Amino acid sequence: MDDVFLRQMPHSVEAEQAVLGSMLIDSRCVADVIGALRREDFYVDANRDIFDTISGMFNFSMVIDPVTVLDQMKVDGVYKESTPNYLMQLMDITPTAANVMEYCSIVQGKSLLRSIADTGDEISAMAYAAAGEPEDILEDAEKKIYSIRSDTGSSELEPVSKILVSVYEQIAEAARNGSAIPGTPTGFPDLDKVIMGLNRSDLIIIASRPGMGKTSLALPLAVSAAKHSGKTVAFFSLEMSKEQLCIRLLSGESFVDNRKLQTGNLTQEDWSKIAAASASIGSLDIRINDNPTLTVSDMSAQCRRIRDLGLVVIDYLQLMQASGSGTSYSNENRQQVVSDISRMLKIMAKELNVPVICLAQLSRANEGRSDKRPMLSDLRESGAIEQDADIVIGLYRDDYYNPESEDANIAELIILKNRRGETGKVKLGWLGEYTTFSSLESRYSE
Question: Which of 11, 259, 311, 376 has CB 3.0 to 4.6 Å from 43, enough for a Cys bridge?
Answer without folding.
Answer: 11
